[in-house]
Amino acid sequence: MKRRAFMISVGGAAAGMVLLPRVSFAEAGRIDWYTSSDTNILDFWTNIIAPKFQAANPGITINLVDAGDGAGQDAIAQRALAAMQTSTDPQADYFETGDPLSPKGALEAGLYVNLKESLANWGLVNPLAIETDFAVPYRGSQVLLAYDTTKLAAADVPKTWADLVTWIKANPGQFIYNRPDKGGSGGNFVRRAIHEANGRDPNAFTLDNFSAEFAEKTLTPAWEILNDLAPSLFDNGAYTSGNTQSIQLLGQSAVTMIPAWSDQALQAISTGVLPETTGLVQLTDLAFSGGFSRGVVLANGANKDAAIKLADFVLTEEIQSAILTDLGGFPGVSWDHISDELRAKYQDIVPTTIPTFPGGDWGSAISDGWYRNVAPTVDRNA
User: How far apart are CA 380 and CA 231, in angstroms?
Assistant: First the structure.
């Protein structure tokens, strides 16, 4: 899910931030790489992964391009699928936030490379992170609660969903989450409400069991939960337009608590975007959803072989360690492939559980249902 515009220093990332006019042919040895992740991820690739990969692979370069939001990357994927029919250059080789199920029919058409069969380092991947053989999970994160310890003592922080609801109602205006289609922190807050309304069983939702009828049955009680909370939110029921805006409100002490991505919150604290007095906590009855970001390689990309090398490279110990130390995320490989020193240092962020929620039709049903039933006056295009 989309996590946009986390405005820390982007260093040399500016060249990759704008979709520039493209030539009609691919440059030999240049991986055309796209992301719909936040600026901190683009910054990480620009300043860490790309230089290290290019140094290790002379003659190969990475053209880093910000695709904007998820819709922007979907459009590029549609272009690539259409290019298969005409045997033309899709002008794309690698999606940093790839979904082999998008667009519909892409996997069946052979748009994406089977990475399990292609990567020497595939065996290092955390088995719990593997969702498909066509996408490599290389970094993880999880939504948690970030709060202002100068206004709320750690001993009083809610640790269960019921306690969180009680706290929000007892402290009107001090909590906010972003619209579920504008950032994963708010999106996974909404999904936690769905889990709460359906027996706290993440296994109740799969890619295969979606139907309009089942969605109506399972999502409706969650809308009731969220509607009950709405009057107690910031500004009598406001919602931010993304993860960054929520963090900004917390940093400005406008609110006391928000849902936030673990890596984004840790990095915000380390860079001063959030004060050092910011606390982080996870619910104990059922954690907020999280998951892994996955890269995919386009089978019809002009530089497919180089892109496969890149997918393998992000699983190396050097890059997986940097995900911990420089990004504040957790690795896509099993923790026994991380150094003893780093395992000890970051043991507090090693997740014990990472509930997940399927994408596909579920994602659309949740976003559409939330706008229609919880925030009908909010312009989803604003």
Answer: 20
